[in-house]
Structures are given as structure tokens and as C-alpha cells.
Amino acid sequence: MLSAKSLFQEILDNDDSFRLFCSIAAGGEAQGGWENGRIAALVPESERALAPKIARHGADEDKHGRIFNALLKKRGLTPVPVPDETDYTMLLERHGIGLPHERLKRDEPLTVRDIVTYLAHSRVTEQRASEQMELLRKHFSGHPDIGRAVKMISNDEDNHLAYCHEELLRLAHAGHGRTIQRILRECALAEIAVYRDVSLAVMDHMGRILGWSAPKAGVLAAGIRAVHAYERLGGWRRMVSLSMPRRRDALGGPATTSVEFA
Prior knowledge:
- The structure is a single chain.
- By secondary structure, the chain is mainly alpha-helical.
- Helices cover 71% and strands 0% of the residues.
- The model has no long low-confidence stretch (mean pLDDT 94).
- It has helices at residues 4-13, 15-42, 51-74, 88-94, 101-105, 112-140, 147-210, 214-233.
- The radius of gyration is 18 Å and the shape is globular.
């Protein structure tokens, strides 16, 4: 019987599929680290108090990339090139979600509107990341090879999501509420389509590596499309709601950057 646990266990047990999984994950985290680092450097003067939190967010993403690379090294594996169709962060940028990389490469201060856009984009993508890591944590937190990494990354993603909620609520109270809701909706609707396409592409690559039968691949593809249909009909709304998190000032302290998984 197909389940999330059995599917990931199959990917985990095969060196080639595990190598692709970790390479995709490491690439996305490294990209997120660069983006947050640039945003932290370009924060407008009126939002300078936010810069250390953005920098910590970026440091966490860099750490996650190193964790996935360390997991590969532990098994004597090296990263592989990430196929373009599986590059979640690149495809989001192509859909106009978040701050364009060309903007971040210029040494010009961002505006408060840019910060709103960044936080709204992060609130949507961190929702996805938090949910994915919670699923892995549920099934693999006790795994001897990846359990510690899964728990560490899951905790960080929960912190990132809490930080986005708290900062967006602060900005909403400062008069940016309508802009925040509009950008959140645009981001969420674009993200669910990108997530569907990336999921289909990743499963296609995994299927070829693992030799899945056509019926099995078809069932998995149908499941991915069913999730998208649910999200398109209303599931996306969970990505745009805002509530004060239990974890207050979740990124207020120093980042934990050490990685010891090799």
C-alpha cells in the first residue's frame, strides 16, 4: 500500500534517489540563504530592527543546505545537478513571486513594500516547508541516519513560520493590511501551482531511478493533482491567514550554525 512513509522510505533506501532528494533540498536551502542574506543587507532604515532576524533566517537556510550535504557525505555520496523542472525557488521567481534576484543584486536599499513582499512570500513558502518537515518528523524522527536532521530542520521551519506571522501582523497594524492580504493571496495561488509542477517532476525522476511501474507512477501523479485541486478550491487559504504565534520573537536569538552529521 502506498503511503508517505513507504514512499520516502523507498527514496531513502536507494543511493541514487536519496542523492537526488538531498541535492534538490540542499540547492533550495542554499538559495534561500543567499536571498535572506541580501535582504538583511538591504533592509530600509525604518525596518533596521528586522535585519538581524532576516539574517538569522538566512543562516538557518544555509545550515539546512549543509545538513543535506552532510547526509550525502555520510553515505559516501556527492551532490548531483538539480534539474530545472525540480527547482522550486527558481520557478517561484519565474512566476514573479518574492523579490527578483536582479533587484537583490543591486546595492540599493529596499522599501517597506519590498519587506512586505518578502515576508508574505516567506509566510506562504514556510507554511509548505513546515508541513513537509512535520510529515518527515512524524515518520522519521527516530531514524538513525536522518532523524536528528529532520527534527532540527523541522524546528527551524516552525520558527520561520512563527516569525513571518508575527512580523506581518505588526506591519498590518501599521497600515499595510490590505497590501499584505493581496500579496499573500497572489503568492499562495502561484505557489500551489509551482508545488504541483515540481512534485510531478520530482516523482517522475524518482520513478525512473527506482523503476516504478506505470500504474504506480500514475497513482502518485493523480494524488499530486488531487492535492492541487483541493488547494485550488480552498486549501490555499491556510497559507494566507495570520494569527499571533505561540512562539514569540522566534528569530530573536543567535543562529545555530554548527552541523555534525558526517
